[in-house]
């Protein structure tokens, strides 16, 4: 834990005299606290560059640099920029940097402009920016193996909620890694290719976790179809590749409109799947019917449905409607567990359910 020294962006030297190397240091210190599994983790302290220390020691006499000429102290001062400054102050400072002519004259001017733009995006949030990178860390039940996953979000624009990672994806992804029973049909039928379909894959957190788990178990007789609307699939595919998952015969990213399943069936030549996975799929009164019909369309007889939903009070009617529809379509609930998790809005409760297809409708 680094001692906090009050030093906001308003105390920095004027932009027109800041050398390039010092600006690079300042931008590094302005990185916000990273998040892992939707929760902030402590920022890592690092020393200021030798060049920046020398310049601040000899060419700038502003408070508090004129008090103690020590590199570690100067580093602590700049490290305090984030906790000492409001989000709006930091955004305003970065915006001034972006438009200042001096920055454009630097040798690494283009890279610096990109860094500034990226920082502004992080402070503005993915909903109004060009997107962010999220970090997740999943672990096996005994914590002996950890699985890091990076997810790129494009933010929410034009109602494209699939560009954001929603909270229910995390507890389900964690369950995938720690629960050896979820896909236990695969090792019992090594002479068959077990087919898994995820409806509404979004940014791909759940899909990546499934692939990582099956690779950990050294299984190859499976094929995973990650699906969403056409405008979502591009970023989904990027996230699969970002996590060193080969888009090959085992993992496919395809467009699937729940209202027109025939197009997906025609392209893949597959009618039924052994497993169907759905997370956080209810955002309007129309969704229960759409989701239930898609599940009914694709889940094979005796197939398993895994579903994870947030227990949002606002969507209680939609949840109950979906559960009633699943029952009417011949799906029997065999497991239900409550999960605790987090999203951008804080701690949230979720429900995990497993259904078995007992009859085809």
UniProtKB/TrEMBL annotation:
InterPro entries hit by this protein: Methyltransf_16, SAM-dependent_MTases_sf
Pfam family, one: Methyltransf_16
Gene3D superfamilies per UniProt: Vaccinia Virus protein VP39
One GO CC term on file: cytosol
Name of the protein: Protein-lysine N-methyltransferase EFM2
Transmembrane segment boundaries: none
Superkingdom classification of source: Eukaryota
Molecular function, one GO term: protein-lysine N-methyltransferase activity
Organism from which the protein derives: Hanseniaspora guilliermondii
GO biological process, one term: positive regulation of translational termination
């Amino acid at each position: 834990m680094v001692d906090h020294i009050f030093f906001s962006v308003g105390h920095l030297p004027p932009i027109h005299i800041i050398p390039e190397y010092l600006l690079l240091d300042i931008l590094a210190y302005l990185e916000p606290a990273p998040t892992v599994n939707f929760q902030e983790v402590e920022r890592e302290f690092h020393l200021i560059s030798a060049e920046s220390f020398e310049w601040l020691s000899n060419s700038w006499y502003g408070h508090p640099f004129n008090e103690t000429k020590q590199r570690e102290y100067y580093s602590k001062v700049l490290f305090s920029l984030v906790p000492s400054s409001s989000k709006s102050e930091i955004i305003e400072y970065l915006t001034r940097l972006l438009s200042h002519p001096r920055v454009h004259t630097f040798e690494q001017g283009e890279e610096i402009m990109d860094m500034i733009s990226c920082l502004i995006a992080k402070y503005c949030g993915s909903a109004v920016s060009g997107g962010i990178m999220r970090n997740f860390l999943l672990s096996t039940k005994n914590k002996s193996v950890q699985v890091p996953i990076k997810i790129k979000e494009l933010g929410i624009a034009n109602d494209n909620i699939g560009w954001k990672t929603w909270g229910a994806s995390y507890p389900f992804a964690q369950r995938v890694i720690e629960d050896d029973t979820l896909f236990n049909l695969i090792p019992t039928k090594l002479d068959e290719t077990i087919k898994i379909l995820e409806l509404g894959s979004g940014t791909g957190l759940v899909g990546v976790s499934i692939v990582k788990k099956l690779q950990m178990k050294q299984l190859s007789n499976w094929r995973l179809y990650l699906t969403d609307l056409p405008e979502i699939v591009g970023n989904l595919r990027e996230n699969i590749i970002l996590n060193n998952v080969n888009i090959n015969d085992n993992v496919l990213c395809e467009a699937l409109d729940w209202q027109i399943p025939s197009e997906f069936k025609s392209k893949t030549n597959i009618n039924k799947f052994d497993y169907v996975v759905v997370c956080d799929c209810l955002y309007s009164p129309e969704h229960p019917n759409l989701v239930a019909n898609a599940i009914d369309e694709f889940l094979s007889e005796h197939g398993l449905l895994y579903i994870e939903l947030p227990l949002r009070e606002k969507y209680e009617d939609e949840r109950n409607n979906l559960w009633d529809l699943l029952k009417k379509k011949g799906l029997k609930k065999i497991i239900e567990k409550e999960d605790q998790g987090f999203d951008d809005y804080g701690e949230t409760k979720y429900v995990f359910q497993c259904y078995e297809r007992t009859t085809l409708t």
